[in-house]
Specification:
The chain is mostly helical. It is 75% helix and 0% strand. It has one domain. The chain is globular and about 45 Å long.
Protein backbone atom coordinates (compact mmCIF):
# COMPACT_ATOMS: atom_id res chain seq x y z
CA UNK A 1 0.00 0.00 0.00
CA UNK A 2 2.71 2.51 0.94
CA UNK A 3 4.67 1.69 -2.20
CA UNK A 4 1.55 2.58 -4.19
CA UNK A 5 1.09 5.81 -2.18
CA UNK A 6 4.72 6.78 -2.81
CA UNK A 7 4.48 5.94 -6.51
CA UNK A 8 1.33 8.06 -6.89
CA UNK A 9 2.88 10.93 -4.90
CA UNK A 10 5.99 10.89 -7.07
CA UNK A 11 3.91 10.69 -10.25
CA UNK A 12 1.74 13.62 -9.08
CA UNK A 13 4.82 15.64 -8.13
CA UNK A 14 6.50 14.89 -11.46
CA UNK A 15 3.44 15.93 -13.45
CA UNK A 16 2.56 19.09 -11.53
CA UNK A 17 6.10 20.38 -11.09
CA UNK A 18 7.10 19.65 -14.68
CA UNK A 19 4.04 21.56 -15.88
CA UNK A 20 4.76 24.45 -13.55
CA UNK A 21 8.40 24.46 -14.59
CA UNK A 22 7.50 24.76 -18.27
CA UNK A 23 5.24 27.72 -17.47
CA UNK A 24 8.03 29.39 -15.48
CA UNK A 25 10.60 28.73 -18.20
CA UNK A 26 8.51 29.92 -21.14
CA UNK A 27 5.63 32.06 -19.77
CA UNK A 28 6.76 33.35 -16.36
CA UNK A 29 4.77 36.62 -16.51
CA UNK A 30 1.55 34.70 -17.20
CA UNK A 31 2.12 32.38 -14.26
CA UNK A 32 2.93 35.33 -11.98
CA UNK A 33 -0.33 36.99 -13.06
CA UNK A 34 -2.45 33.89 -12.44
CA UNK A 35 -0.71 32.81 -9.24
CA UNK A 36 0.10 36.14 -7.59
CA UNK A 37 -2.09 38.66 -9.39
CA UNK A 38 0.89 40.63 -10.73
CA UNK A 39 0.10 42.81 -13.72
CA UNK A 40 3.64 43.98 -14.47
CA UNK A 41 6.66 41.81 -13.83
CA UNK A 42 10.23 43.09 -13.86
CA UNK A 43 12.88 41.48 -16.02
CA UNK A 44 14.69 40.44 -12.82
CA UNK A 45 11.60 38.63 -11.54
CA UNK A 46 11.22 36.87 -14.89
CA UNK A 47 14.87 35.77 -14.71
CA UNK A 48 14.50 34.43 -11.16
CA UNK A 49 11.25 32.74 -12.17
CA UNK A 50 13.06 30.94 -14.98
CA UNK A 51 15.75 29.73 -12.58
CA UNK A 52 12.96 28.44 -10.31
CA UNK A 53 11.47 26.77 -13.38
CA UNK A 54 14.74 24.94 -14.02
CA UNK A 55 14.80 23.75 -10.39
CA UNK A 56 11.20 22.53 -10.60
CA UNK A 57 11.98 20.73 -13.86
CA UNK A 58 14.82 18.90 -12.08
CA UNK A 59 12.48 18.00 -9.20
CA UNK A 60 9.86 16.75 -11.65
CA UNK A 61 12.35 14.62 -13.58
CA UNK A 62 13.83 13.16 -10.37
CA UNK A 63 10.33 12.31 -9.14
CA UNK A 64 9.44 10.69 -12.45
CA UNK A 65 12.59 8.58 -12.45
CA UNK A 66 12.14 7.47 -8.82
CA UNK A 67 8.44 6.59 -9.09
CA UNK A 68 9.07 2.86 -9.59
CA UNK A 69 11.77 2.46 -6.93
CA UNK A 70 11.32 0.74 -3.62
CA UNK A 71 11.99 2.82 -0.52
CA UNK A 72 15.76 3.17 -0.79
CA UNK A 73 17.85 5.80 1.01
CA UNK A 74 17.92 7.77 -2.27
CA UNK A 75 14.11 7.73 -2.56
CA UNK A 76 13.80 8.65 1.13
CA UNK A 77 16.11 11.61 0.47
CA UNK A 78 14.03 12.68 -2.53
CA UNK A 79 10.81 12.41 -0.52
CA UNK A 80 12.37 14.45 2.31
CA UNK A 81 13.36 17.15 -0.19
CA UNK A 82 9.85 17.15 -1.65
CA UNK A 83 8.40 17.42 1.88
CA UNK A 84 10.58 20.45 2.63
CA UNK A 85 9.75 22.07 -0.71
CA UNK A 86 5.98 21.62 -0.36
CA UNK A 87 5.96 22.80 3.27
CA UNK A 88 7.92 25.97 2.49
CA UNK A 89 5.99 26.61 -0.75
CA UNK A 90 2.63 26.42 1.04
CA UNK A 91 3.86 28.76 3.78
CA UNK A 92 5.27 31.27 1.28
CA UNK A 93 2.09 31.25 -0.79
CA UNK A 94 0.00 31.81 2.34
CA UNK A 95 2.37 34.63 3.32
CA UNK A 96 1.90 36.18 -0.14
CA UNK A 97 -1.87 36.13 0.37
CA UNK A 98 -2.09 37.22 4.00
CA UNK A 99 0.85 39.59 4.52
CA UNK A 100 1.66 40.81 1.01
CA UNK A 101 -2.05 40.88 0.09
CA UNK A 102 -1.51 39.32 -3.32
CA UNK A 103 -4.73 38.15 -4.95
CA UNK A 104 -3.95 35.74 -7.76
CA UNK A 105 -6.75 33.52 -9.02
CA UNK A 106 -4.86 30.33 -8.11
CA UNK A 107 -2.98 31.59 -5.04
CA UNK A 108 -5.03 29.87 -2.33
CA UNK A 109 -5.59 26.76 -4.39
CA UNK A 110 -1.81 26.45 -4.88
CA UNK A 111 -1.16 27.05 -1.17
CA UNK A 112 -3.68 24.37 -0.20
CA UNK A 113 -2.37 21.95 -2.84
CA UNK A 114 1.21 22.29 -1.59
CA UNK A 115 0.03 21.79 2.00
CA UNK A 116 -1.84 18.65 0.91
CA UNK A 117 1.27 17.34 -0.89
CA UNK A 118 3.39 18.03 2.20
CA UNK A 119 1.00 16.03 4.40
CA UNK A 120 0.89 13.22 1.84
CA UNK A 121 4.68 13.18 1.63
CA UNK A 122 4.99 13.10 5.42
CA UNK A 123 2.62 10.14 5.56
CA UNK A 124 4.85 8.29 3.07
CA UNK A 125 7.93 8.99 5.19
CA UNK A 126 6.62 8.32 8.69
CA UNK A 127 8.42 5.47 10.48
CA UNK A 128 5.32 3.28 10.87
CA UNK A 129 4.45 3.78 7.23
CA UNK A 130 6.40 0.76 6.00
CA UNK A 131 4.90 -2.68 6.50
CA UNK A 132 7.35 -5.28 7.84
CA UNK A 133 7.17 -9.01 7.33
CA UNK A 134 7.70 -11.70 9.98
CA UNK A 135 11.50 -11.44 9.56
CA UNK A 136 11.53 -7.71 10.33
CA UNK A 137 12.34 -6.82 6.73
CA UNK A 138 10.59 -4.01 4.84
CA UNK A 139 8.05 -5.39 2.38
CA UNK A 140 9.24 -2.85 -0.19
CA UNK A 141 12.83 -4.07 0.07
CA UNK A 142 11.78 -7.71 -0.05
CA UNK A 143 9.80 -7.05 -3.22
CA UNK A 144 12.85 -5.35 -4.76
CA UNK A 145 15.00 -8.44 -4.10
CA UNK A 146 12.56 -10.73 -5.95
Amino acid sequence: MNATKRRLLLLTTATVEAGTSLCLLFLPASLFAILLGLERVSIEAIFVGRIAGAALLALGVASWMARGDSLTPAQRGLLTGILIYNTVASMLLAYAGVVLEMIGVLLWLAAAFHAFLAIWCFSCLRPGGIARDSHGEDNDRRAAKN
